[in-house]
Amino acid sequence: MNEMSVLNVMKSIVPITRFNKGEASRIFEEVQASGPKIVMKNNRPACVLMSPEKYESLMEMLSDYILQEEAERRLSSSEETLSQDEVIRSLGISQAELDEELEKGYQDVLAGRTKPADKVFEEIRKDCTK
């Protein structure tokens, strides 16, 4: 590890006693200005503080990685696969209809008209058991 990275790590450490002294607002400002902080309790890392934007970015990267792993697993699998054209034909829709529905979904996301995946699957299960 070079000197600069050691210095950065040292600057990112925050003893929990600073919170006990009422410095939370100052620590949050430091997180926004200089990046994540590692909160130490009893000389051990207790948590990491980061901006909501950084957290969201990390969660998106994790999600992308999980999707990539799944795609690679499926591509290397011996299971039968279908092309997009075959799926569209089996559903009885056209490419234009699919594009239109995808655009509607995209507009819903932009407008905040979304539901958590677990709620959607719960609704699907209910519909299937009727």
UniProtKB/TrEMBL annotation:
> Which family is annotated?
Belongs to the phD/YefM antitoxin family.
Which protein is depicted? Antitoxin
Q: Which domain of life is it from?
A: Bacteria
Functional note: Antitoxin component of a type II toxin-antitoxin (TA) system.
Q: What is the taxonomic lineage of the source species?
A: Bacteria, Bacillati, Bacillota, Clostridia, Eubacteriales
Query: Which PANTHER family did the record assign?
Result: ANTITOXIN YAFN (PTHR33713:SF10), ANTITOXIN YAFN-RELATED (PTHR33713)
